[in-house]
Design goal:
It is a single chain. By secondary structure, the chain is of the alpha+beta class. Helix content is about 55%, strand content about 10%. The protein has helices at about 20-45, 50-75, 80-100, 105-115, 120, 125-140, 150-175, 215-225, 225-240, 245-260, 265-270, 280-315, 330-340, 345, 355-370, 455-475, 495-500, 505-510; strands at about 5, 180, 200, 205-210, 370-375, 385-390, 400-405, 415-420, 425, 430-435, 435-440. The strands form three sheets. A six-stranded mixed beta sheet has the order 1-5-6-7-11-8. The radius of gyration is 26 Å and the shape is globular. The model has no long low-confidence stretch (mean pLDDT about 95).
């Protein structure tokens, strides 16, 4: 089974990502105005009920989720700096509005009235009851139990923290580090590493530009024999965005202050309240147990790695000065090659992106009884991006859309993630809205002469992130706030962590390797 291709227009409502800065600003202002009107209306309810208070608030969330996510998502993928700037400004403005909304005492009073009404709550189904409970808790966690002066102080701190978080992420996305090396300094890297690579001339010497994006950074740290090269590259990666140091320091301070204002001892205690773990002690006990089990294994492996570096230094007639962070990937890869006869360069010859992607889609189609249909000439945010429809396997029931944005480019989100774009939910008339998810990664891109070859780690990442995509596509919820990956933070990775294990199953690998 393989992904099918459609030349017909995409099924369902296809979202528009090609927004101008002005359109982003207008959409943001409209979303805020619409939401404010709903909040004003429910706050005036004299006889608060689930239908008169909770439903309008949740329906507003449902209907706005797609536009909200689109205007804040494009900062991670657009090639236009003005669009990215507008998207970042939109996120800051929307987050500030959310903080103000969560601190509206008049709205909290009517929500709390429903929450405290036992007969009203007893009539609700499980998802509706959870909705009321989560709404009420959200208001309390935003200071509605505090007096007015403290609420105002809290609001100022929360808005500043939100601004810091947005700026921090933006800096990471837009500021890739880069170093230039001679071919001799890159001894150990395979020939395909140099295919299509930018070259610059420094003092009459030809050098290759290596960025801190994963497809450049990881192979260099694993393969470059020159320790100085590895050190320079890791330093370039770990010291980029120095402006984020002050942002992080301020954010850590604000997080503690906010938590303590709300009656929690620490930020960890505040955050874990919403998780399955519930309390820091549970996390620390789990971590301590893992450490006791893993440290003996780690010590043994570190001794193996250290022995290899000592031998290298002895052979070169150089003093051994220690094992450093830039050594770990290089000597770990050497252990795999010498002890287990496993080489990334040899393994990736079996994993071209075209075959891997086809195989991964096939696995998920078979496992989940789905059919993926690639849409030709779809409206997307970059030519590299592909849009797929998702159908039940018999082809009769449409399920949703997903986008694949697989390759690096300048100012793009620099890691790998699945972005929920539109949540699935039940409309007021009982019909279903279809979910949309975008998978954004930075896998090696094919060149005119070389296919895109994936390391086994890349295959695992693809399976993992696509698991998040399917979590969103296959979810069935009444309310958008519970859809897909919008669940407890210490559960959200579980489905993908299980699904990525297909990458270790010989029977699965044989389908596309």
């Amino acid at each position: 089974m393989t992904a099918h291709m459609s030349t017909a227009p995409a099924k369902g409502t296809v979202l528009n990502f090609n927004l101008s800065p002005a359109e982003i600003h207008r959409t943001t202002d409209r979303l805020i105005a619409e939401s404010t009107a709903v909040q004003d209306r429910v706050a005036a309810e004299s006889r608060p009920t689930f239908e008169s208070v909770i439903v309008p608030l949740a329906m507003c969330e449902n209907e706005q989720s797609a536009e909200y996510n689109v205007v804040t998502f494009v900062q991670s993928v657009s090639t236009d700096k003005e669009v990215r700037d507008a998207s970042t400004a939109a996120e800051e403005k929307l987050r500030e509005f959310e903080i103000e909304s969560q601190m509206r005492e008049d709205v909290y009073k009517v929500v709390r009235a429903v929450f405290d009404n036992a007969s009203e709550m007893d009539k609700l189904g499980a998802e509706d009851r959870r909705l009321v409970e989560k709404m009420e808790l959200g208001y309390r966690r935003n200071g509605l139990a505090l007096d007015k002066d403290k609420r105002e102080q809290l609001g100022v701190k929360q808005k500043r923290l939100s601004e810091l978080e947005v700026r921090f992420s933006r800096n990471i996305n837009e500021n890739d580090g880069a170093e230039a090396f001679t071919r001799e300094e890159l001894v150990g890297l395979p020939d395909d590493f140099f295919e299509g690579r930018q070259i610059k001339i420094e003092d009459g010497v030809e050098k290759f530009v290596v960025t801190t994006k994963y497809p450049d950074l990881v192979p260099l740290l694993k393969k470059a024999k020159n320790e100085t090269t590895r050190r320079r590259m890791l330093y370039a990666d770990e010291t980029r965005c120095p402006e984020n140091i002050a942002l992080m320091q301020e954010a850590v301070r604000l997080r503690l202050e906010i938590a303590q204002m709300l009656g929690y001892k620490t930020h960890a205690e505040f955050k874990l309240e919403l998780s399955m773990a519930k309390a820091p002690a549970t996390v620390l006990d789990f971590e301590d147990d893992l450490r006791q089990r893993l440290e003996p294994l780690a010590d043994r492996e570190l001794k193996e790695i250290e022995a290899l570096k000592r031998a290298d230094k002895e052979a070169a007639g150089e003093p051994y000065e220690g094992l450093f962070s830039w050594d770990f990937r290089y000597y770990s890869a050497m252990v795999l090659e010498r002890k287990h006869q496993i080489s990334d360069d040899e393994v990736k010859q079996y994993f071209s992106m075209q075959s891997v992607l086809r195989g991964v889609l096939d696995i998920y189609e078979r496992m989940l009884s789905l059919k993926f249909v690639r849409v030709e000439n779809a409206p997307v945010w970059h030519p590299d991006v592909e849009l797929y429809e998702v159908w039940e396997a018999d082809g009769t029931t449409f399920t949703g859309h997903f986008y694949l944005d697989l390759y690096p480019r300048e100012s793009k989100y620099s890691h790998a993630a699945a972005f929920p774009i539109r949540s699935g939910f039940t409309r007021a008339d009982g019909t279903k809205e279809y979910p949309v998810t975008a998978m954004v990664t930075n896998f090696p891109k094919p060149t005119p002469t070389t296919p895109a070859l994936q390391k086994h780690d890349d295959v695992i990442t693809l399976l993992h992130e696509f698991g998040h995509v399917m979590h969103g596509i296959c979810s069935r919820t009444k309310w958008a706030r519970f859809h897909g990956t919008s669940t407890e933070g210490d559960f959200v990775e579980c489905p993908s962590q299980m699904l990525e294990n297909w990458g270790w199953e010989p029977s699965a690998l044989q389908k596309f390797a």
